[in-house]
Design brief:
2 copies of one chain form a homodimer. Chain A is mostly helical. The first copy, chain A, is 65% helix and 3% strand. Chain A folds into 2 domains: 28-94, Winged helix-like DNA-binding domain superfamily/Winged helix DNA-binding domain (Arc Repressor Mutant, subunit A, Orthogonal Bundle), CATH 1.10.10; 101-244, Four Helix Bundle (Hemerythrin (Met), subunit A). Chain A contains 13 helices and 2 strands, in the order ααααββααααααααα. In chain A, strands 1-2 form a two-stranded antiparallel ribbon. At the A-B interface, α4, α5, α6, α7 and α10 of A face α2, α4, α5, α6 and α10 of B. Chain A binds a DNA duplex through residues 2-7, 9, 28-30, 54-56, 64-68, 70-71, 84-90.
DNA sequence: GCTAATCCTTTTGTCCAACAAATAAGAGAA
DNA sequence: TTCTCTTATTTGTTGGACAAAAGGATTAGC
């Protein structure tokens, strides 16, 4: 009597095999359940604090096994959109920011060189290439604030505080652009940027070389010297690349 | 005959109940497996491209059931540190930035005038201000591809298809920068950008004025004419601003 | 001998059923 | 009424089965 049925041929109605051939990225049952749950949240207009149906109810609703639903729930938990407790069930939360931080405290995986280069390249576009916009908007108060944050970095007691202050300096710089989209993206990227800042540095570096580089950038900004500003900032951003190591990793086995 | 043993009392050795009281966040079996795998990666010094042991091997090594190991693997996949394929197994990757950005594609941003201006400003920084980088990287193939996508937009049957093709054009433009961080940010902003593109337009506009603007941009890029390129692109991006309504909200600094 | 199609084996993907643990809710006693 | 104990429900974990994918070994055909 068919002890285990194991997911009736993809879909009881449609002959999926052809579809599966055409579409290489066949969504797994778990992915489908995740999409279903997201759709459920959307259509019911659920917000933080609201509860989701029980696992078994979701099994029945989406015609999936409990393990499949549980794996889907694991994804949602990992994304920080729900918390699950026994008997209580799944409750919608918003811990996405914490999760983003968790991602890069994941010391087990070293940030790849490609990621490193892309992030620094992105920052270079936002901070260096936008020189005209920054010069347009920067006022005396901004200069003062930048100097204060640079001193805070120099005087920070620990490595973590120093890199936090370092980020704060650059965040202030881009905030001069007065563009929420930019600051939001920077906020999301903060964990990676922090780790990049600490890469190959010791505490003392923040108080000496990094401090001096920041000072040069501020001076150029205050003097409205475009060339010097771009040179100083570009130099500052590229420095970490050397400490990262030789770029042999990316090579596609030159055979 | 004890068909299912189900995790012998937490730990065969230690009396955990006290611990459980002291420590409110009692780590689940899945969390422990995740920690074990992280430790395994660290102690073996595994990097991007290396493979993890098979699921059943991990079960045996950590004394956990396969479902538990699978849920742990789901977490690692959600974190973007491994990819798993049948028969191949789990391979270490680094898609954490992509996942971090993904986290924030959940919320449906409502587009205010300020948001609209910021998004367009952001695009202007990425597409216009980076002119030197784009000129450095753009090749004949890129020009051809841009022309193809522009024609696709002109010939699109519906409004939705046209705006999709419009986005595709701009995505191709920024992809010339060869920076995953930029393309990822564009990808998550896609829904908003699409809505901006359709704002105050009729289907015909994509085939006439928008098509011509794109053509001008491509011509300038091909001719390596920086001034013309920046002018054409900036003009193109600012056009939508007028159709959005009176800009009384965003007090433009009177220069 | 060499190529190509076929079979085989390994590994992940999904399903099912059971028991353990946690806990909210209700029943019962003071 | 209020506190405590029981109960029922829900998540957490386990074991086992089969399906599907994919690489490797085997064999047929030239």
């Amino acid at each position: 009597m068919a002890a285990v049925t194991a997911r009736p041929p993809r879909d009881a109605l449609a002959p999926l095999p052809f579809d599966a051939v055409i579409r290489p990225a066949a969504p797994s049952a778990v992915d489908e359940v995740v999409a279903h749950i997201r759709a459920l949240i959307a259509e019911r207009g659920l917000h933080v604090g609201d509860s989701l149906p029980t696992e078994r109810e979701l099994c029945q609703r989406f015609q999936a096994s409990r393990n499949t639903v549980r794996e889907a729930m694991r994804i949602l938990k990992a994304y920080g959109v729900v918390t699950v407790r026994p008997k209580i069930g799944a409750v919608i939360v918003d811990n996405r920011l914490e999760r983003a931080l968790d991602l890069f405290s994941f010391n087990t995986i070293e940030i790849s060189r490609k990621t490193f280069a892309d992030i620094q390249g992105f920052r270079s576009m936002i901070e260096v290439d936008t020189v005209e916009r920054i010069f347009d908007h920067a006022g005396p108060d901004d200069i003062t604030e930048l100097r204060a944050r640079n001193r805070a970095m120099r005087d920070a007691p620990t490595m973590a505080d120093a890199s936090e202050a370092d980020f704060s300096f650059h965040l202030k710089l881009v905030s001069i652009l007065n563009n929420d989209a930019v600051t939001e993206v920077y906020r999301i990227m903060k964990p990676v940027i922090i780790r990049i800042m600490e890469k190959g540095k010791v505490r003392q570096d923040f108080g000496t070389s990094t401090y001096q580089q920041h000072a040069d950038i501020i001076d150029a900004l205050e003097a409205r010297n475009r060339i010097k500003y771009q040179y100083a900032l570009q130099y500052h951003l590229e420095l970490g690349l050397n400490t990262f190591g030789s770029p042999q990793e990316d090579k596609r086995s030159p055979e």
